[in-house]
Fold these 2 entries.
Entry 1:
Amino acid sequence: MKARWIIAVAALAVLLTSCEATRTRQSLYPKMYEEKPVALLVMPPINNTTNVEAKELLYTSVSYPLIEAGYYVVSPHLAMELLKAESAYDAEMFIDQDAAIFGRVFGVDAVIFSVIDTWKKEGFGIRTDLHYIVKSTTTNEVLFDRRCNLYLDLQQKSSGGGGLAALTDLVSSALATALTDHIVAARKCNAYIFSDIPRGKYHPAYGQDMAVGANERDIKATVK
């Protein structure tokens, strides 16, 4: 009986290792390699929370990790002006529609939609829950789909000791959360979301990162 149990555990370990080994950028996002998008348009986030600032914070910080990954991203500020002029500011109107219109208007290969389901203070940090979708403007296929549940821990490290020192640490932590780092939270979330996106045309690893290991589509993490 013991020998059978050991064999079963060993087989399970091999299976799990095999699954981990086969989870690559190509296996998760094959259509990114098939369509090879170069230019991207970021739509204003769909905000399902009561935090009105979350939409702008996320929108203004999403371009950087995509540019770092080798893509050309239409300036969010310029895009916003045109979207407002065309009464197309609300991404809710387009997320389930054909994305071809964005290709015709902006000349991009793909459009990025994001949904904010959670953005709130929690303890001495910020809890976020985001969903990103990259859609092709040529085929309307979903090229990249990922969720991120991220807790940004803003609590200050204890200086040691008790009494006044402990109270000071507590106040400092509260102020750090109150004063912000919502901007840091937005940047961290976007960095996590796009950490495994296949590298674009302007990145040295373009077309050579298919076998690179990747995290799961849905990410849950705590960041200091």
Entry 2:
Amino acid sequence: MSGAEAWLGGPVEGVPPLLMPVAHALIQTVTDVRRAAADLTTDELWARPGGVAAVGFHLRHIAGSTDRLLTYARGVALTPDQRAAIELEGVPGTPPASVEALLAAVRREVDAALDVLRGTPADGLLDFRGVGKAQRPSDVIGLLSHAALHAQRHAGQVITTVKLMRGQAR
């Protein structure tokens, strides 16, 4: 694509046309966070300039929330491990997680999400899906769309946090 945004790259193989915007947003997320964060040191990855959330948190959260939202979209309850992971998203770990590991996790979850999109029949997009313990009402397309929007929101926060850390004006 030589620098073009994902949505200008044409159809994603196997993804139904109605879900193409979701696929493009998820693919763009991978591109955006890799461009912004790939060269961060471990200290920069877990820094909290001005008290904002660390880039490491956002990368873990993109991977984790994408996994959780796609789990709900498939009509499955979260596992205890998925629930426990929420509390650890902002914890660097010992030793602290590296940028390479976190970017790889984002890539894996986006690849898994693309597989879910490929297997999602158009006639099931409006099927009810309950979210969380309270089973808040949603549907398949709502969850898939939210996964992409949520990932892009956090990708934007990664970009902004890196610029803030490095004192970049744009």
